[in-house]
Amino acid sequence: MKTITHPSIKLSPSLNREDYNEILRLKECCLEKEEVTLKLELDYKLTKSYNETMDQNKINEFMFYDDHTLIGYIGICQFGSEALEVNGMVHPEFRSLGVFRRLFSLVHDEWNKRESKQMLLLSNRNSASGVKFIKSTGAHYENSEYEMHLISEAREAAKTNLHFRKALNQDAKEIARQNAIYFQMNSEEESTLPEEAAKDGMDILLAECNQTVIGKVHIEVQNGVGGIYGLGVLPEFRGKGYGRDILLKAVQELREKQAQQIMLQVAVKNKNALNLYQSCGFKETSTMDYFKLTKN
Fold it and tell me: pTM here?
């Protein structure tokens, strides 16, 4: 274990490219020591900082340095819902020195300045130190999410005449409407511009059948890993096999983009989606637990 000699803390409303790269390096150091998943949403945050005007009065990035080297990080995410999502890490050689506790105290102060009544603290289930710290805050278990990877690819043809259309900026309201239905996100706060997201590698695809939008999916490839996000079928079109076809076509699209691995995330309690993904060859590889703090 090292000692901290020249500590400093950087607070910022958003990430820039330099921050992004430093946090990635810290993440790599942590993953070399532990088999855990860190849900930091760095690509989402960087894209958001480029495409949106950030509220300069809200601090979302908390970085702890020792002699100009990043050794601790906590980030806040808010996906158009009430709760803040908080996740972070500390360099393995600088743990048990109060780094995370110091950063979290600043996160807590920031939360107290905001109207949000709830804060969700995230930890990979395999991180004993992460779970222990979260429980020390008084947070209570809320739910869990699986990360799943495609292990055995389903070789089957689509059963519907569904096709994808790449979303345009004019589709932003429709995307926000669907997110509100599938993920209880605030449609008024959601302002994803598909053409801007595409510039940073995230393709938003609207699923259509007979010229009618029936659902959507978001796909991207980062360092050879293909991700499937935001998949959903509108309620009036469910039970007709569209969800399966959207998933299979998304996998096909990612393969065409040279994805070597394909992953997605799903709430453990979402049994219908979980069964679909399993039947298409996806297997759970890690579990992210969510713990909730609530203001009085």
Answer: 0.82
